[in-house]
């Protein structure tokens, strides 16, 4: 079974997305802030990380940089999902090491398809 760490502080979005992923047979570990997310990624070593940019305690940009510079997690693909979808934010996410960017609000079917593609 594929494992995902989802770092998302929105209860509504997190609940909807984790429910849809579980239906697809994907194990989801949900962290609600950046510090928890980094710890979960290091401990679980998931197949993929879904990361919001606007998080409490540690921004998604900083989380991505930390994960992509750590020997234990640098190979794990990171998909950013954020309302900060302007070109500057997308460039910053790429510079931090993000593998893909999905702007919010997102289409659930398209998002699930993109997640599955990155899990292969």
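Sequence proposed for the structure above (120 residues):
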């Amino acid at each position: 079974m594929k494992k995902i760490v989802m770092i998302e502080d929105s209860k509504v979005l997190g609940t909807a997305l984790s429910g849809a992923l579980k239906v697809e047979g994907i194990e989801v570990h949900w962290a609600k802030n950046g510090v928890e997310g980094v710890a979960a990624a290091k401990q679980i070593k998931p197949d993929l990380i879904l990361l919001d940019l606007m998080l409490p305690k540690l921004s998604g940009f900083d989380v991505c940089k930390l994960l992509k510079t750590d020997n234990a997690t640098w190979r794990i693909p990171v998909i950013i999902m954020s309302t900060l979808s302007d070109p500057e934010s997308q460039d910053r996410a790429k510079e931090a090491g993000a593998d893909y960017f999905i702007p919010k609000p997102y289409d659930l079917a398209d998002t699930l398809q993109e997640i599955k593609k990155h899990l292969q």
